[in-house]
Amino acid sequence: MFEKILIANRGEIALRILRACRELGIRTVAVHSTADAEAMHVRLADESVCIGPPAPRLSYLNMVALLSAADITGAEAIHPGVGFLSENADFAAMVADHGLTFIGPSPEHLRIMGDKVTAKHAVKELGIPTVPGSDGAITSEDEALKLAREIGYPVLIKAAAGGGGKGMKVAYSDAELKAMLPLARSEAKAFFNNDAVFLEKFLLKPRHIELQILGDGKGGVIHLGERDCSMQRRHQKLLEEAPSPALNAAAREEIGKIAVGAMRKFGYESAGTLEFLYEEGKFYFIEMNTRLQVEHPVTEYITGIDLVREQIRIAAGGSLSLTQKDVKFNGHAIEVRINAEHPETFAPSPGRVEPYHVPGGPGVRVDSALYSGYRVPSHYDSLVAKLIVHGRTRNECLMRLRRALQEYVIGGIETTIPLHQRILAEADFINGDYDIHWLERFMAADSGAS
Asked: Which of 48, 137, 342, 428 is 20 to 30 Å from the Cα of 310, by its Cα?
């Protein structure tokens, strides 16, 4: 086992990793920008190193600074968390070249799954169903038009190197496809320095279902059930639950077997998530996240398995400590992402937090690096907290979540807590009858009514 791990991230995920390390008796190194000097993970870590100014490219994305921090502190491994460099194959390779361990998959697997076109080819060969679409990047407008007519409108234009909804456009006709194609390419180039795009069939009312995987790279692979991430705005997840109210036992077993078999063949190592669109009883692969997910706590609640701890054990050379038969599912869990944003306009709301009070009681967990007096910086993602609740049933879970949201006080800034309270009052959500477009329809109807 490692003696010291450098945590190459910030905010709640850095704190989550730090806590797992503490429970394993591992010393921690926090890195931070000048904007995060007073952050909670910096205060609690055994050591901390300032790696640059606030801009991410000069700090949290600065590979040389991160490796230098690991070198001067004597860290043996680097945990990348989520976002930033967590799926960067070049960084993982640099870590290995410096004699350190990257807590995550191999650079090869990061490269394959980091490009959506390459990933689609790979999973097809592994026997995972995919959304009908182009076999590779679209090279011309004529090619795009021909394929769109074959697939049938509407179609989705997606950045090959993309994520988070960037470089993604929907076209309902030839005219719209002609207009959207250069826009998608331009956006993909701006966000990912890669203007390659591909085409997929746009499903009208799908659920977003993802399956949590653990592999040890030695042939041991298990799945920890699915999460339903269909509550989204502009392809950004706002709420996740497990298990999905849209799946029955047969569908759950089917996708679990497919995923485990494919990842065993792939030789996958570490935690990973296979993401699917699910419509009319069929699963369609959309991407694989080769890292820890923001929503991993809902899986931890229903399985009792610490995913970060397992990641660290596997990276240290351990085999899976569980078989599929050992994985038991218990109750229902829901996570809401609380962002420092206006709950209606979604305008960012950085500032000083005062007062601050977290909810408690049975089945309530808060993953957050906030504290009273903390100043939320304007330089990073707006996620400031995750409220996760667990109950014996989905209904108990919903009641518990309502109560916990009422208790949660984050003063001094705007947050999305009121939006979550409104969603929980809607019959569609209460009945589990929603899809990935539901929230945008809800917000548009609400805007029209006002």
From this structure: 48
DSSP single-letter state for residue 191: H
Q: Any bridge partners for residue 362, and if so which? A: none
Query: Is the distance from CB of 330 to CB of 253 less than 8 angstroms?
Result: no
3-state secondary structure of 140: coil
pLDDT digits (tens, 9 = 90+) for 14-72: 999 999 999 999 999 999 999 999 999 999 999 999 999 999 999 999 999 999 999 99
SS (H, E, C) 10-65: CHHHHHHHHHHHHHCCCEEEEEEEHHHCCCHHHHHCCEEEEEECCCHHHCCCCHHH
Is pLDDT above 80 for 162?
Answer: no
Q: Give dist(CA 238, CA 386) in Å, integer.
A: 10
Q: Which fold has domain 132-201?
A: Dna Ligase; domain 1 (3.30.1490)
Handedness of CA 224, 256, 214, 13 (dihedral sign): negative
Residue for token pair 């808060």: 366
Which whole-number Å values give the CA distances from 285 to 48, 188, 246, 296, 427, in the listed order? 40, 21, 17, 19, 29
**Sign of CA pseudo-dihedral 239, 245, 250, 251:** negative
Catalytically active residues are 291
Beta bridge partners of 376: 351
8 A C-beta contact, residue 121 and residue 135 = yes
Ramachandran quadrant class, 373 (left: phi over 0; alpha: psi -120 to 50; beta: rest): left
Hey, do 132-201 and 207-449 end up sharing a CATH topology, with the first three levels equal? no
- Residues paired with 356 in a beta bridge: 410
Chain centroid to Cα 169, Å, comes to 21
Q: Are 317 and 76 spatial neighbours (Cβ–Cβ below 8 Å)?
A: no
Partners of 227 in the beta sheet? Answer: 210
Phi first, then psi, for residue 88 (nearest 5°) are -95, 110
From the list 310, 307, 285, the residue with the least C-alpha distance to 296 is 307
Distance of alpha carbon 402 from alpha carbon 119, whole angstroms: 39
Q: Give me the architecture of the 4-103 domain, per CATH.
A: 3-Layer(aba) Sandwich (3.40)
- 57 secondary structure, DSSP code: G
CATH number of the structural domain 207-449: 3.30.470.20
Token couple for 292: 């820890």
Q: Rounded CA gap, 334 and 302, in Å?
A: 10
162, with CB counted inside 10 A (0-12, 13-18, 19+), is: buried
**Helices and strands, number each (H, E), in the chain:** 15, 20
- Domain assignments of the chain as residue spans, ordered by start: 4-103, 132-201, 207-449
Average pLDDT over residues 70-77: 98
* Encoded tokens for 364: 């309530």
